[in-house]
Specification:
By secondary structure, the protein is mainly α. Helix 1 runs antiparallel to helix 2 and helix 2 runs antiparallel to helix 3. The N and C termini lie far apart (41 Å). The chain has a domain of 74 residues.
């Protein structure tokens, strides 16, 4: 963790040394939340691009590849929801609406993929 002397941290340092740490923790929390949000956006974009590409949806390869994308998006959704909840943002429905998460991704959220033998 790097302490940067800026307007906010110097004011906090003058009032309480713990204030600087709290400020840095808040910055890291916000950064982690942003990373999880971008990961969800990336996963949902990959799934949408796969669905938009012309291919035979009945082929086993297409079903397997799409299933893998759904699992990745569901894990990203789960991580983002958990990160938001750790920040005190409890409304997961808002995320689903805002990011337009497909129902099948929502159903897979939190479910672990089957283990490979």
């Amino acid at each position: 963790m790097v302490l940067r002397a800026n307007r906010h941290s110097t004011d906090l340092w003058g009032s309480s040394p713990a204030g600087v740490l709290e400020y840095e923790l808040a910055q890291e929390t916000a950064s982690a939340l942003g990373r999880q949000g971008r990961a969800l956006e990336t996963a949902l974009t990959a799934l949408a691009a796969f669905d938009a590409a012309p291919r035979d949806p009945a082929s086993p390869d297409a079903r397997g590849a799409r299933g893998a994308l759904v699992v990745v998006a569901a894990q990203a959704l789960w991580r983002f929801i958990v990160q938001r909840e750790s920040c005190g943002l409890r409304d997961g429905g808002a995320v689903v609406r805002m990011y337009r998460v497909p129902a099948e991704v929502q159903r897979q959220m939190g479910a672990f993929p089957p283990r490979q033998p």
